[in-house]
Amino acid sequence: MPINIPKQMPAREVLEKEKIFVMDEERASTQDIRPLNILILNLMPEKEKTEVQLLRLLGNTPLQVNITFLHMETHHSKNVSKWHLEQFYKTFSSVKKYYFDGMIITGAPIEHLPFEKVNYWDELKEIMDWSKDHVTSVMHICWGAQAALYHHYGIGKFELPSKCSGIYKHTIADQTVKLVRGFDEVYFAPHSRYTSVSREKIMEHPELKLLSEGEAGPFMIMSKDEKHIMVTGHLEYDTDTLAIEYERDLKKGLDIQMPENYFPNNDVNEQPLNTWRSHSHLLFSNWLNYYVYQETPYEQDRKVKVDVPVPNEF
């Protein structure tokens, strides 16, 4: 089934070329289906790229999904136009009276900052607290996962000796957990970060369960009430995302190493191979099915779609 996004959204053209089933509000209203309402708090600087990456995965299940994008009111985004935010995004103050079936909080390239020094930390804390009784399940990605571990469970991050960048091998701790149902015993996932979290503190915490780990440390962590899912890497990344980041860091003059296990023969002129695509789709499919669709209450009056304004309303 399709994802429902505005007709004018740039991601729509990309997804349609990939044969992802995209639907607009007019057609969706003719179907007698209870769609899932998913809120995406997009903290990434290049928001349009992240939109495509996440919508591609959310649009590949049998479920009809309504998407609402959220940006921070207390932060000015430099890499996306004001027009784009006004057309396709909401702010927390405009959605906090609603309930959502699921929510995604993305990563953000601000790991060098203590959480309290992030200019939108107070707003993010309010959103994370609000999600406890307004969202059925929340998936946190990379820095978003670290923020959730810190805010909800008191587990901080620590700096790594060098950037963790590349494609790393992971294993599953418990194959019976629904989130990793269908995963291979060994699978690969991209990582791109300067910080990590303590495996020992996760294992010792009475409210957390470590689902998967690997060469890059803890990867998937879930609260035992299954409310929060923390993914420290980037299964949503495109094939060339790490290459683009590497080139960007080199142009900045950073002392950066080539992404590990990424370029064939460690040759930047060779095209990387995507070895994580199937598991990225599986992760999002399992999350939507088992932790959102199967768990969310069927109460239409509480699950109100927050429509993104069309251009002529501005």
From TrEMBL:
GO BP: L-methionine biosynthetic process from homoserine via O-succinyl-L-homoserine and cystathionine
EC number: 2.3.1.31
Pathway(s) of this molecule: Amino-acid biosynthesis; L-methionine biosynthesis via de novo pathway; O-acetyl-L-homoserine from L-homoserine: step 1/1
Locations listed in the record: Cytoplasm
Catalytic activity: L-homoserine + acetyl-CoA = O-acetyl-L-homoserine + CoA
Record keywords: Acyltransferase, Amino-acid biosynthesis, Cytoplasm, Methionine biosynthesis, Transferase
Site, Important for substrate specificity: residue positions: 192
Active site residues of this protein: 142 (acyl-thioester intermediate), 234 (proton acceptor), 236
Pfam families: HTS
Family, similarity comment: Belongs to the MetA family.
Entry's Gene Ontology cellular component terms: cytoplasm
Site (Important for acyl-CoA specificity): 111
Record HAMAP family: MetA_acyltransf
A GO term, aspect molecular function: homoserine O-acetyltransferase activity
Species annotation: Siminovitchia fortis
Primary subcellular site in the record, as a coarse category: cytoplasm
Family annotation (NCBIfam families): metA
Protein name: Homoserine O-acetyltransferase
Binding residues annotated for substrate, in chain numbering: 163, 192, 248
Protein task: Transfers an acetyl group from acetyl-CoA to L-homoserine, forming acetyl-L-homoserine.
